[in-house]
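I am writing to request your help with a piece of structural work I have in hand. A protein sequence and the structure tokens that stand for its backbone fold form the material at issue. Please examine both parts with care and let me know of anything in them that strikes you as inconsistent. The record follows directly beneath this note.
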Amino acid sequence: MAYDIKLADRLREYLAEIPDIEIEEKEMFGVLNFMVNGKTCVCAGGENLMLRFDPKPQEELAEKSGYETMFMKGKEYKGYCYINPDGFKSNKDFKYFIDICLAYNKVLKASKR
């Protein structure tokens, strides 16, 4: 699955405005992974956003427009989801989803390389 260039540019523009973060982009598994401070934060995959977030409010997030559950090996993958384009048409909704990822990113520890 190739990622949408316009979506990737939208992510780049938004993240570039956030002070005091280090952003690295990695193409992997068909998505463009935006790593913030050495940790996966948000990805562009096809036309969808792939979010990494605190799994505690997952049920609440699942009620949002555009939410799609992420499954891996047949099981729901907690703390990750897809948001289809209907869910982030407005800048307000786009910002909401990215800010959720950024908030969780602050409390995560980077994995050892």
User: Anything to note?
Assistant: The chain is about 30% helix and 35% strand. The chain has one domain: 5-107.
